[in-house]
Structure formats: structure tokens, C-alpha cells
């Protein structure tokens, strides 16, 4: 098991951060799998990477600019057809600010 | 010989010569899918009506003398490529009902080229896997032996071409997902240089690694499809300025004097002995044809799998945050707003997707970012630099594509790390954005073995030319699965 092995509580916290509801058995299973992976990840901890610039992208590009020109929008009926719930031509979404 | 036995180049020639109509070609493939795909389960959605409509449009182009190199030749699309009005599931229950309101850039390009779209092919859920067993719907099967996996994640696209249900297909490749299934199904799979094919409309997995690419029965067919789908696209901010890939000179190369680097790390014990022998035998043949080979050491390759399994999940954990039950697909009820989101994601994502989101969330979380994500990006830089150094001296880096041939469905499910090691040879090309192609080079235990060629960024045309020369140098005609 890796040097940064995580506890069941930590696994629960990661699932919460990831917005994934897991039952007890699933959580146990994921804790084991996460720890197995973290154990494998230990190999790069011993590499000397001092002074190496990180490579965040495959092929680096500098800023990409586009003219600020309005384009066509998707028709309302097309976007409404994608919605889980609609009413009177509107998207119905859950309340996100609760009392 | 039936129409479905013809490769894309032959079909295109017959279409231009008016020996056959675009409708006849599309109907032949639709009919074969209808009667045969039950064996291979390569398609999630077949769009017969759309394909026939596309065929009529293609015929109009041909009749007006406006046809291109692939006009009328049908293509199957991996089901993580958005198609306007046609369900796009990513093989996930969370997108079970999603019908995109727009076409991916590659789909627009296929329409412009007159390539009818036959339907959408199966994959590992959100392209996370190497066997097509992580599909939320069903596993696809390898046409060489239907008890075996076709590889993944573009397993449906590979099986469809191998089983002659489509002459060409598109896949996407984040760590090997085009090249590895191509290898296991005995076809050609090409990952272009990152940025030469627009990712607009490809459902994002690991954005800095993902690339759409073509699959076909031979290098020429594959190059023609690369030409059709490549080009700059303002809708993808990582699209390169001179993105268009030309297939015009794909047949002009020679093996004489070509220099190939053989990284000893990719011929090591991780590679199955039968696979290694097969590739070494092919190298002997190519040496007799005038190619030169030299063993090199690219030590960072040993860290590729770790680097990939940090960077790709980290990017996925961010990309897949959009699947929250509000903007796409079904919504399940939980406790409060966050509860709704967590319930929807917990129930509708499959186990592998949930695991990778959790790995990525952990790797990016406060206190661990430097140890995992930042360090992985530094190792990525080392790996890319080692390959770039090789390209100063060699035309391409050559290795097996997959450490193993096709394996039984369910055979590696209990050994997830073994399954992850299958991307060992293919991952470096994604890390550096390099063009990379797998082509069949023989059989081991009567199953296809793929040879992987990787070249420098923007060296796609030269790499395709080299691959064509290698295909010719190996001197064998396309080998069909015995079941056909």
C-alpha cells in the first residue's frame, strides 16, 4: 500500500468532493482501489524532476483570439428538448439556494 | 465479391466509375449490420434513415462531378462524437437520452466530404477502458474470436471495421484508445498530432490528451479519412493553424534508408513473448527491405502509466463535473440540491468512471496537487523530451502497439492494474501530442498483433508515408478474420 494510503473517512470525503453518492460497500471497494492505485503512483515520487518545467498540454499554443461577433444561437425549442424538465417554455432546475 | 468486402479506396473508385451507387453501398453495409452485428455488438445506434439521406447527398456530389476521394464511402462513429439529432451516449446511462443539437466538427467535415454516417459505435463508458467491457450497455466482441474483447476504448469502431460492417470508422485516443483496439482487431488505427483534428463536439475526457482519429483496413484508407476530417477549426482553441493533413503523397515513400528507434523499454518483460517475437520477425523482414533499426533507451516510458493515470483522471474529474442531472440526461432525487447531483452521478456513472473521477479529485485536492498532478506533468515533460530527442536522429519510434493480443471477455476484470498496463506502449504519444499509428504485422496464437510507429509533432504525412511503406514491406494482403 502506498505511503499516502487513505482511510475510509478520507475516501468518503473525496466522494463528497466529487459529488458522487456511494453506498457502504461501494465506498469500501473504492477505498481499496484508490489505495492500490496510489501505491502504483509511488514510482514517480522517487524521480528527480528538479528544475523540469511541467508540461500541461500536448502541443503548446499561445493565446488564441477571436473577433467578438455575435453568431446564431440554438433555437429555444431545440434547447428545451434537452431539458430534464420544462414548463411554459422554460427550463425547470432544482432550487440551489435553500432556506 | 460483395460490396462490404471492398476497402474504402476500392469503394471510392467504384463509386466514381459509376459501377455502383452511394445508396447501394450504404444499403449493403446497413444490411450486413442488420444481419451480423448481433455477433459483434459493435453498434449502439444504427441510423439507417440518416445514412440513406447522406448517401443521396453523396450521389448528388458524384453526379455533379464534385466528389472527393471518399465521397459515398460510409463511416461509423464512436458514440462520444456529437451528432446533430442522433443520440450520443458515451456508452453511459447518464447520457442515455442525450440527443446533441449540433454536429462535431469532424461530422461536418464528413458531410462535406460526402461520407454517409452509418451509426454510433460502442465504447468503454466515457472512453475510460481498454476492453469495451466498461460500456453501460453491453461488451463488444472481437471478430477474430467473439469470446475475446475487441480492445478499447474505441472497441466498437475497431470491431465494425474488422467485421466489415463499415469500411471506415472514427475513434478517439486519450491513452491508446484508437491504436490498441486497432491492434487487437487486425486493422489500422491512427492518432494524428494533437490539434490537427478538431475536438469540437468530442465529449471531453482528458482534454490535453484526447484526439479523434481514423480507423481503416489499410494505411491508404486511413490516411484518406485523416485528410477528410483534419483542418483548423476556430471552435477548438487547441486547433493548430496548419492542421490539414494531406494524403496526396502517402504512397510515395520508401523503406530504404528509413531509420527506426526501438526503445528497449517497449520490448521488455511487460510485452508478451508471442507479441514480441511477431514484431521482431516483422523487423527482420523490414531490414531486408532496406530499413535500419537501432535499440535506444527512453527511460521515462517506465513512468508513463502512472503519469497517465494521474493526468487523465484529473482532467476527467473536471470535464465530467458537467454531468449533474441538470444540463444533460436524467435527474435523480437526493437530499437537497447537492444530494440530487450526487445521487444522479452515483447511480448513473459506472464503476470505472466513478473511480477515475475520485482519483482525479484526490490528485487535484489541496495538499496533494504538487505530489501528484504537478509531478506527473513534469514527468510528462521528460517523456516528451526523450521522444523529441529520438526524432532528431530517427524517422519514427517503433514498438508493439499492445503488450498482449486480444484477451477473453471478463478475463482481466479482476486485475485492473493489468488492464491499465495495456496502454503501456501507446501512452507516450498522447503525452507529447505525437502522431502515432498501429498497423497489423502478423499473428500470435492466430490473433492479430499490431506494430506501433510514432513520429514527431506535425510529422503526420511522413509517418503515414512510412506506415504505407512498412505495410508494403511486410508484403501481405489485408488479412480478414477467419470467421468471415
What's the CATH architecture of the domain at 3-256 and 465-474 in chain B?
Alpha-Beta Complex
Separation of the first and last Cα atoms of chain B:
12 Å
The CATH topology annotation of the domain at 3-256 and 465-474 in chain B reads as Amidase signature (AS) enzymes
Largest sheet of chain B, in brief, is: 11 strands, mixed
Rg result of chain B: 21 Å
Average per-residue pLDDT of chain A, rounded, comes to 88
Summing up helix and strand content along with how strands pair, one would put the structural category of chain A as: mainly alpha
Helix/strand structural class of chain B: alpha/beta
How many helical elements of chain B? 15
The rough form of chain A would be described as: flat
Number of strands of chain B: 11
Residues in helices of chain B, as a percent range: 25-40%
Number of strand elements of chain A: 2
- Assembly level: heterodimer
Query: Rg of chain A, please?
Result: 23 Å
Poorly predicted spans of chain A: none
Query: Helices and strands of chain B, in N-to-C order?
Result: HHEHEHEHEHEEHEHEHHHHEHHEEH
What helical percentage do the residues of chain A reach?
Answer: 25-40%
Mean pLDDT of chain B: 96
Beta strand % of chain B: 5-15%
Main β sheet profile of chain A: 2 strands, antiparallel
